[in-house]
Predict the structure.
Amino acid sequence: MEQQEIRDLLQQVKEGAVSTEEVLMRLKLEPFEDIDIAKIDNHRGLRQGASEIIYGASKTPEQIDVIARKMYEGGQRTILITRMSREAAEYIDKDLPFTYYADAKVGLVGQMIEPRQKGYILVATGGTSDIPVAEEAALTAEILGNNVKRVYDVGVAGIHRLLAHTEDIMNARVIIAIAGMEGALASVIGGLADCPVIAVPTSVGYGTALGGVTALLSMLNSCASGVSVVNIDNGFGAGYQAHLINNMEG
Amino acid sequence: MEQQEIRDLLQQVKEGAVSTEEVLMRLKLEPFEDIDIAKIDNHRGLRQGASEIIYGASKTPEQIDVIARKMYEGGQRTILITRMSREAAEYIDKDLPFTYYADAKVGLVGQMIEPRQKGYILVATGGTSDIPVAEEAALTAEILGNNVKRVYDVGVAGIHRLLAHTEDIMNARVIIAIAGMEGALASVIGGLADCPVIAVPTSVGYGTALGGVTALLSMLNSCASGVSVVNIDNGFGAGYQAHLINNMEG
Amino acid sequence: MEQQEIRDLLQQVKEGAVSTEEVLMRLKLEPFEDIDIAKIDNHRGLRQGASEIIYGASKTPEQIDVIARKMYEGGQRTILITRMSREAAEYIDKDLPFTYYADAKVGLVGQMIEPRQKGYILVATGGTSDIPVAEEAALTAEILGNNVKRVYDVGVAGIHRLLAHTEDIMNARVIIAIAGMEGALASVIGGLADCPVIAVPTSVGYGTALGGVTALLSMLNSCASGVSVVNIDNGFGAGYQAHLINNMEG
Amino acid sequence: MEQQEIRDLLQQVKEGAVSTEEVLMRLKLEPFEDIDIAKIDNHRGLRQGASEIIYGASKTPEQIDVIARKMYEGGQRTILITRMSREAAEYIDKDLPFTYYADAKVGLVGQMIEPRQKGYILVATGGTSDIPVAEEAALTAEILGNNVKRVYDVGVAGIHRLLAHTEDIMNARVIIAIAGMEGALASVIGGLADCPVIAVPTSVGYGTALGGVTALLSMLNSCASGVSVVNIDNGFGAGYQAHLINNMEG
Amino acid sequence: MEQQEIRDLLQQVKEGAVSTEEVLMRLKLEPFEDIDIAKIDNHRGLRQGASEIIYGASKTPEQIDVIARKMYEGGQRTILITRMSREAAEYIDKDLPFTYYADAKVGLVGQMIEPRQKGYILVATGGTSDIPVAEEAALTAEILGNNVKRVYDVGVAGIHRLLAHTEDIMNARVIIAIAGMEGALASVIGGLADCPVIAVPTSVGYGTALGGVTALLSMLNSCASGVSVVNIDNGFGAGYQAHLINNMEG
Amino acid sequence: MEQQEIRDLLQQVKEGAVSTEEVLMRLKLEPFEDIDIAKIDNHRGLRQGASEIIYGASKTPEQIDVIARKMYEGGQRTILITRMSREAAEYIDKDLPFTYYADAKVGLVGQMIEPRQKGYILVATGGTSDIPVAEEAALTAEILGNNVKRVYDVGVAGIHRLLAHTEDIMNARVIIAIAGMEGALASVIGGLADCPVIAVPTSVGYGTALGGVTALLSMLNSCASGVSVVNIDNGFGAGYQAHLINNMEG
Amino acid sequence: MEQQEIRDLLQQVKEGAVSTEEVLMRLKLEPFEDIDIAKIDNHRGLRQGASEIIYGASKTPEQIDVIARKMYEGGQRTILITRMSREAAEYIDKDLPFTYYADAKVGLVGQMIEPRQKGYILVATGGTSDIPVAEEAALTAEILGNNVKRVYDVGVAGIHRLLAHTEDIMNARVIIAIAGMEGALASVIGGLADCPVIAVPTSVGYGTALGGVTALLSMLNSCASGVSVVNIDNGFGAGYQAHLINNMEG
Amino acid sequence: MEQQEIRDLLQQVKEGAVSTEEVLMRLKLEPFEDIDIAKIDNHRGLRQGASEIIYGASKTPEQIDVIARKMYEGGQRTILITRMSREAAEYIDKDLPFTYYADAKVGLVGQMIEPRQKGYILVATGGTSDIPVAEEAALTAEILGNNVKRVYDVGVAGIHRLLAHTEDIMNARVIIAIAGMEGALASVIGGLADCPVIAVPTSVGYGTALGGVTALLSMLNSCASGVSVVNIDNGFGAGYQAHLINNMEG
């Protein structure tokens, strides 16, 4: 089944023209390309409206290379690879158009999608140690087609540094607030913003930082409304949800 | 300072006509009406684009009544009161237009705001015990001006009950997935939906349900992308963020 | 041994005129008045430079009454009773000069000590639910002879409310920052102040607030320097240490 | 005492011909072969009706080799070695019939037992990272004489992948559901199956996955009936119990 | 659709005559009887081969009565109600054939199913305080059609009391081992038995018993093979799984 | 803006001559020197009355060198570097006046500030393993201009060793009590002292020491008044707060 | 079998005259008197050399009365009942010689055993709130035939109060150190004593006292040698073990 | 002060001839030999009646060598070194009479003390992985002058292996029960023994063994009386307390 075909099918579901069950059954006929080392799930992308994403953490360089290549050959032009080691990055077939963002451990086969939205997603961090997680979030959003504004190292212990960005905060469409230690950044930003805020706790800190649990708990108990939270160090998850929100049809 | 005046001021900030600092300073002149038992913070509403909200949990019936009355007299026509006891509900001044939703412990002084968006927010629960939290979420969203579709008791142990609502899931603009016990609902819905999903763990369960912590942890580790999480039993928080997302300008 | 006598003795220790061991041995001759239901420890007060303090939580009204009366008869003119139930307050001998602060569950037999210091201790809270703990802290400090300035309900989700008190913060000699939920207040105040900050987590909140543990962890991981922490809801402990700091000899 | 002899004895217990005490006492005469580095417990096998099992985790290659050889010389023809390092595998006496399953860290001296049951045990995983644990479970069951059907990478975030195996699930005699992260697989399978389900949480995930504790808690709180749980990453335990269940006499 | 009809349909699935999808779709036409206060899910019973079960914990006496009556009128002759309060038991329609087991908080509308299996499920407890949980397990199994042998108060601190039942243990088809405090019973029984053992931790104990968490952890780490675990105090879950195992076709 | 200028400005704030807002706005014009790899925040030092501090843990040797050099060139004569690796210490520009304290992992560019106070801060440890943390605390205090008296290895299991220092304790102006394992030192010292005590739990210990959490909990529950606590192993934080307290104006 | 008979039998075991197995088997013939509501286990007493003990926590007044009466009629003259409610105490048959110790919730049917040892067990507490647990420990020891010296309210925050009892500590044969909050008493006593110390954490405290867990952790990490620990609030357990130690034959 | 002198002094304390305070003061004159790298505390040994003990974990080989040599030169003939690395063992001065027990990481300078007691301490383990901890306990006891009987690998999953040692258990004077995983050994032994049992949890296990916490919790909740517990892996602590108990004067 060609991609366009699937897209049409899906469109029909949305319009109620065909029932979900029918579609599920039809899709089941060729649900994923089994390339032995992985089941390439073309459905997920379809269902969720995103380009292809490879979670690199538990895959060998060889596996990532094969999967990415298969996808690219299948016509995919924006393939995001998260938690990708430098070793895996170096292994990628030289014929593929590939960029590696070492800080964020993010790889991109193909090119970033053009933003449809003029507004931006704001990515803010409490400290400099949070930057790798922030870059994972920011690049995820950029690759999926969003403008991103970065505001790093604006932790609440120096509140004037954060307030200097009040306008950036008030004009953002979505905000990703990233912090370790006590994670207070989410609450302060949540109080200043009138847009959805996604908080990402990081494992930055020591002792009772408990590997990010303290920041997580802090963010879940934010006294500001409109803040939700993702897993510790999950920059991708925040970037992905921010992308979904930013591209809401009005 | 009149409300319209403040709104104009805020608009200027967004347009960059005046600096945030200027506004903050001007607002500081009359930042909240101090009615002795509470500081009525008109700013928060302004900053966050919502009607007034009273968190009823730590307030006496008398206090809630006074605050709500003051607000109503001040021109507010949609005042949402969360975690409101029946006792407090009965205490509310009979002259005020007041509705009490006992299940959700939600009170409304004035009326619901008319939805601007045609689409709907889907509120789904794993079981019937999750309904009070779900109603808090649903009513929050409805009062703030959103269409809500409720799909209750569709826990994953009977997956066909959930799949029967696949179309509801695929057509939603935002989904609030509410579950206690093992909280698996968020992952399954997250995998089916292509819109933002806000997961709410509930304190339903016993033993190792740990008062909702198990559902929370489960939701934070959802293998589906695009899921974020709020505090245990925080229906209001989810409803509020869903409202912000649903009203994004495209 | 008369109080003045003991004071002289203690002074000699500080001057090195007598060894600590000598004093300990002498004190041991009459270390506490045993009134059957309690050992009235006159030493602690001496050692720690404070008036007498009765921890009311685990004592019956009768016991508190007897102890307080004995102390008063012994010449004590400032007797602070913490965690005192209303029932216990009503039981206190009507002949004693007694004041009860119901919010803080603090009782005072005798009168407050006159402040020696012109400056003040600032007591700030994130929300109104934190006020009982704050009052325990504030009254402890006032009774022990300190000026106290109260700034309540200045949680970080409405940062402008806190910033409106920047001068209060910058001019304080010691600050007690009290908050439940995510406890971010300590970090923001810690960043603004150049004096010692004592943070008090409170048990305010629900779900993952974990009865104050989240606020505690948050405060221990404050990214601001100069912040230390006491036990959950321990207003007395914070007030007591603030008193010691405020009365440092320059 | 010869093996057959012991077996007869045990049979008599079951028939009530001799009392347990008598047997225990007789067995006590030669309870285990003490080969210095280990007490080879022939009883356990007898009592529990399984072939011999060596838990390799805390033993040196030399020790495993000696124990396995002794057992083989003693007539054992199916010796399962779990948590066996590659180093230990390479050390095994070349004269022994030996197979090493590197993924599962399982070694087999001798051969697999022929299945008595035609039906199969289904081993399902949420992701590919769970496969090592799954293989430990599957090989344990196969070696002990069971047919096994593997269904890997069917996590609930792509529910259609799991539903594609509905018939496999409904026809299984026992199911082992293996998942890390949020562990929701157990609940969904538990709801679809009408046979016993043994859930195995794995340590796959990061941050709040808490090394498998989240998946464990999730599985213990499964809203489906008929699900029980073993320790984190305990593929062997699940495979062993599944074997016992699969071989129940009708 | 009549029950027999559904049963036939399900049988066809097992034989592969119709696909699961077909069945799911057909069942979807009348998936549950919606009696307003509940969705009576006739499917679950079908799918899982059990009679109807009502989880009474979160339902009012009125609700339980209505549901049970509807089921009984629908032809159900064995309706198990768990976690049923005495109040709810007294509310049940006097015309229904009803038995209440107060210790176990179990109600039965109709009668127990006749056991198909001659062998028995052994239900053992460490102490007398564990008996309510044990009775929930035992009655669940009995009502679903199993012989049950009870061996209570055989905790490992008096090992001779347990050993006196060695024959009962060795002859059981399935064992449910129930204990609070340190939960050691599961390990000792697991070592003596050659059948599947389901361990149920109970919330019996104080201090570091942690409401059953200690027993749970202990059971998950049992050094005996063939032990799996259910949630704290989940007697029903254990009884249900034991029933599934006991009725395996050989 | 020159440093003297800023200092004058700040002085005016304290005197009320200018409002805080004015100052904040003026400072905002040149808030930090952006040297690309870091934002050198000259404000924090100003606001908090300390010399410059570099937190070395998350910075490369190159980064530390550049920042320290920039600061030194900017006129700073006391630059404290905490959590500095030996590698980073060796990388520091040889032209800078630099001292490295290997035990404490503390570096000093420039020289210690002369103490204004005659009295001393007492730094006490329970064991010898706590010394690195103690040295971080002691050097922080010394570098910032305080006299420090060290009393190490005086754990409460040998109470006479601690009592031998009773006079040191009674004469101290501030005490930093540092201990791992059960952390009882803080309580005993807290009972002997009449000055503020800052307790530092350390990660010394094994098993249930839980990496310092046990000592932390113990210190938070000290039965002595006047004890507050900082994060595990946070010698710097304790030294810094002790410095603030020691330099209170009387 | 008469008690003397059993005692003789047991003696023979110790002398090696008969094997344990023989005894176990003989005892099995009449292992416990089954009085329907309880299995009166005469063995435990025999095996462990103590008089009879009834754990009252989970028994009704009627049950306790019946069991105690049966035991008394069976010749027992020292029956210790722990965790006995006042209600149960009042229910005890008036014909039985009965004493109730309300503080400790301990009941005694018959009389205390005469001490064989001249020396004493020291029972020390940190505060007055620990006294109920201490009395359970002290009475357990006294009833079983031991001299007990009580030293209450000697918490380490007033170390001179504890040191005033140095001789009591150094002359004790066994010490039971009981404390809540930070539990430091065990370490200080452990350092002063040269006899075994049994530490009992209590649930006294609030916030991070965590219901006794903090004191427990603290005691397990005592830096003094020779300290072991029992469960939170387990005065009986400590008293019982102290009794065993005190009556060691030299 | 010569050792004999100190011993005499201490004897006088016990007899009441001199007061403790006098002795403490006299001892204070020369409390410990300060050899720069350590304060050799001759008091602890005196106070606690043991030979010298060096805790090797946090000391360099050089430090251990110097301390041991100093002690030996000072006349000590039994110096126990715990947690001693092989590297440290090899560094010890060849002129010293030294033995290293690699399994237990125990070093001995000089010789074991002759046992005064004929009876023995039983050291039992659940598995072979627990042996290093057991050997630390056993050697501690032996070096301090006690007979030790070892019974290893008698975990409760093979209860007959443990019962085979019933006589060893019933004849022991003190028992040290060592186990990881579920730690059930302590309860079973506690039920069989009539002497004090000291339980040692070990960090053996994986997943929910939680590094020994599960075994610890299990042991603290032992349903057998007379069991107390030490820290995880603390073989020394158990051996030391067993030594104190075994040498009680009758």
